[in-house]
Write a structure and sequence with these properties.
The structure holds two protein chains of two kinds.
Chain A lengths: L6 H19 L12 H6 L3 H15 E2 L2 E2 L6 H16 L2 H19 L2
Antiparallel strand pairs in A: 1-2
Helix pairs in contact in A: 4-5
Chain B lengths: L7 H30 L4 H10 L3 H12 L4 H11 L1 H14 L4 H10 L2 H10 L7 H31 L12 H14 L3 H16 L7 H20 L1 H6 L3
Helix pairs in contact in B: 1-3, 1-8, 1-9, 2-8, 3-4, 7-8, 10-11
The chains are: A mainly alpha, B mainly alpha.
C-alpha cells in the first residue's frame, strides 16, 4: 500500500519535527531576560490572526492556484455555515460539525 | 508532589481538549490519508504521525515531498505555515520562563493552536505568582498531552483506512474549518477583523509566490495596515488590547 523508505524523507521528517519545536518555542529558547520592542509587541495583536487568515483564505476561494469563478462551491457554504454556528454558539466542535455538514451535503448530494 | 490525576488544572485542560477532540480527530484522519496518498512508506508515515505534530504544515509539506521538491523548499514552506507559533511563543514566554530549557522545549512542542487558544479563554495573561503560572502550565500540559494522543491516533487510523475513504469527499476541508474556528475565537475587535480581511486578500493575491511566501506577504501587509491605522487614530489602539 505504501512506498519505499528513503533516507531523505526520514531526514525531512526529522527536520519538520525540529521546525515544530523551534517555531513553537522560538521566544523562549534563550534564557536571557529580554523584552520585545514596543512596535513588535503591538504587532503581536495582529500577526497570529493574519497568519491564520493567510493559510485559510486560499484554501476556501482558490482551486489549483486560480480564484474560483462560481459561487456554487461547497467550500464557500461550508465556511459560511461554520462561521454562523460560531457566532451563535461560540463552540469549535459545532463550527466544525456544522461546516462539514453543509460542505459534505453540497459536495456529495449536489455534486458541487 | 501532587499525583497527576489529582491535579485539577491538568484534568481541566484534558476535559476542555476532549470537547474538541472529535474535530481534531477528523483533521488527523485526513492528514493520515494525505500521508498515504503522498506515497510515504509505513515507517515514514508512522514517524510523521507521531513526531511532527503540526497538521497545517504537514498538509503543506506532503505534496512537496511527493513531488520530490528540494529539502530546503519543504522546510521553508513548513516554516512559513508555522509562523503563527513564533508569534504565540512570544506570549507564552511569560508562562514558561520558570522552567529549565528541556522542560520549556517539551511543553512548547506540545502547545499547538488549540491548546494555546483554550488556555487564553481561561487566562489571557500569565499569572503574577509562581504557583499561578504552574497551574496554567498544568492546564497546557493536560490539553497538549491529550491533543497529541488524539492527533497521533487519528493520523495512524487515517493512514490504515486510507484506501476506504474516497478522495472525492474532500475531507481535508475539516482542517480549514478547524483553523476558521480558531481564527474567529482570536478575532475579538474591529481592528483584528481588518487584519483578517487584509491578510486573507493578500494571501490570495500573492498566491503565485513560491514556498508559500504569500503567507509572509499577508502577515506583513495586515500588520502594516493595522499599525499605521493605530498611529493615525490612537483611539483604535485602546480598543485593540487583547
Amino acid at each position: 500500500m505504501t512506498g519505499e523508505t528513503d533516507g531523505w524523507t526520514i531526514l525531512t521528517i526529522a527536520l519538520l519535527t525540529l521546525n515544530t519545536v523551534i517555531t513553537r518555542c522560538f521566544f523562549f529558547l534563550s534564557s536571557k531576560r529580554w523584552s520585545l520592542p514596543d512596535w513588535a509587541a503591538r504587532s503581536l495583536n495582529y500577526a497570529p490572526i493574519a497568519a491564520l487568515a493567510a493559510v485559510i483564505a486560499p484554501e476556501v476561494v482558490m482551486t489549483q492556484g486560480q480564484l474560483i469563478h462560481t459561487w456554487q462551491d461547497a467550500r464557500l457554504f461550508g465556511v459560511a455555515a461554520g462561521c454562523a454556528w460560531f457566532y451563535w454558539r461560540r463552540s469549535l466542535l459545532g463550527t466544525l460539525a456544522c461546516g462539514m455538514g453543509a460542505y459534505l451535503s453540497l459536495r456529495l448530494l449536489a455534486g458541487w | 508532589m501532587t499525583r497527576w490525576w489529582r491535579d485539577e488544572h491538568l484534568l481541566l485542560g484534558m476535559r476542555d481538549m476532549a470537547s474538541i477532540c472529535p474535530g481534531m480527530g477528523a483533521w488527523g484522519l485526513m492528514t493520515g490519508v494525505a500521508m498515504v496518498q503522498s506515497n510515504l512508506s509505513t515507517l515514514e508515515l508512522v514517524l510523521m504521525a507521531l513526531f511532527v505534530f503540526a497538521g497545517s504544515s504537514q498538509l503543506a509539506a506532503l505534496p512537496l515531498i511527493a513531488a520530490g521538491a528540494p529539502l530546503w523548499v519543504v522546510l521553508a514552506t513548513a516554516f512559513c505555515v508555522n509562523l503563527r507559533f513564533v508569534v504565540f511563543s512570544a506570549h507564552l514566554r511569560d508562562f514558561m520562563m520558570d522552567l529549565p530549557l528541556p522542560q520549556r522545549l517539551l511543553r512548547g512542542y506540545a502547545t499547538a493552536d488549540l491548546s494555546y487558544m483554550l488556555m487564553l479563554r481561561h487566562w489571557p495573561q500569565a499569572a503574577p505568582d509562581v504557583a499561578g503560572r504552574a497551574q496554567q502550565r498544568s492546564y497546557l500540559a493536560g490539553s497538549g498531552l491529550l491533543a497529541w494522543i488524539c492527533w497521533s491516533a487519528a493520523s495512524l487510523l487515517g493512514a490504515a483506512f486510507a484506501s476506504s475513504i474516497p478522495t472525492s469527499w474532500g475531507l481535508g476541508f475539516a482542517g480549514t474549518l478547524a483553523l476558521t474556528g480558531i481564527v474567529w475565537a482570536l478575532t475579538n475587535n474591529t481592528m483584528r477583523v481588518l487584519a483578517l480581511v487584509v491578510a486573507g486578500s493578500a494571501a490570495v493575491a500573492a498566491f503565485a509566490l513560491p514556498l508559500k511566501l504569500n503567507i509572509v506577504v499577508a502577515i506583513a501587509a495586515a500588520v502594516c495596515v493595522c499599525m499605521v491605522l493605530e498611529q493615525l487614530h490612537p483611539a483604535l489602539r485602546e480598543r485593540s488590547e487583547p
